[in-house]
Amino acid sequence: MSQLPPCPQCQSPFAYEDGAQLVCPECGHEWQPGAEAAAESSREIRDSAGSVLQDGDTVTVIKDLKVKGSSLVVKIGTKVKNIRLVDGDHDIDCKIDGFGAMKLKSEFVKKV
């Protein structure tokens, strides 16, 4: 018997095949085998100029950004080194000198 992957939602090891799909009997989730790997590999995050961003890139802020919950402002032209791409609305995780750890939207940065 072949080894089937666990359910991507509840991690149940009891998934079974139903035609071309896999089904989880515990949570009822249905998925295509290998669909998660294809979705992850096709994920591209682009900056404001359309350049593809990668982990470890250096970017520049293209607009003054107010820091929520404080009176600080990240000024235009601020360089941000060694970014990390994450899922979500704010898709860049980084540390900015003088501000600390922050999340940025890729539409407000440009790759250096």
TrEMBL record:
Residues 45-112 form the Protein YjdM C-terminal domain. It comes from the Bacteria. Residues 3-32 form the Protein YjdM N-terminal domain. Belongs to the YjdM family. PANTHER family: PROTEIN YJDM, PROTEIN YJDM-RELATED. This is Zinc ribbon domain-containing protein YjdM. It comes from Rheinheimera tilapiae.
